[in-house]
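Revision sheet: structure tokens.
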Amino acid sequence: MSVELYQGDCLTVLPDAIPDESVNLAFVDPPYNIGIFCKMDPAEYLAWCEQWIALVSRKLTANGALWVSHSEPVVLARLSELIAERGRGLINWVTWDKYDWAYVRKFKEAGTRSFIDASEYLIYHADEGQWTTQCDRERGFIFEPLRAYLAGERDRAGIANSTINAAWCEWKQVNSTSQTQKWFSSSCFNPPTREAYEWLRELFHDHNHGGEYLRRDYEDLRRDYEYLRRDYEDLRYTFNNPGTVSSVWQIPPAPRNGHETPKPEALLERIILATSNEGDVVLDPMFGSGTTGAVAVRLGRSFVGCEINPDYVEMARQRIEQPQQARMAV
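Predicted:
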């Protein structure tokens, strides 16, 4: 795990500082062009944004994740288009609801014709085009034998998909049948878990009042599949599904720490855990007080960052030292 901090304009420093296609996750929190620290002509601002989008896109791996935050939805929508034009599609639009109203009221007042704007927004872009292409190419000998075996045993037991779906919903206490459908269709990408495999075996047996179905040992079945797909699975973008998390995040703002607009660590923690793996490289080309770096290091990621303000660089350096030393001491 390494940390690289650079002082200067990311557009001039980063092109030669880090190799292309070496970053797994980038988080960009640019100046919002709302008059506090930055006020360019809108066209000039978008032209500048297009430059760092091009730079960051080049530094990301083919399956790398790109997050951008902004307070202006119209501007962020345009940034999303610029990112997508470079081949990395939009996965999620996230609303960050800064619901700590005591904090918000210190800085904003309700208008006579509008509600208090207490949200910022994030876009999450990623691409699995190479993975999809490879899957299409290899589906015939990786997915089809598995699908055919499962479907053949289903047909031999004389059980309909609708019966399987209903039993699955009752067993799992859910409404969705999408998982069971994937096991038997041409869109099969993941085999059943051991638990689900044993459940299917018992279901087929009970439905036909006896008989042995799904006789292949689960580990053998899974081993064949994993061996065939491992060469290309790492082409797929990372998403460690946190479970019951919607695209509206209620996270209190960060307290002032010497930087005017710090991001809360909880926000970055959710992003880094969900869209990168331990050992990955995280980039923040405008890192401010170093929140991204501090959280990335604490979570076992390497960090590369750039910041134009030397005072903030020193603040970030000191802030990142603590989790870095803590991990080294383990």
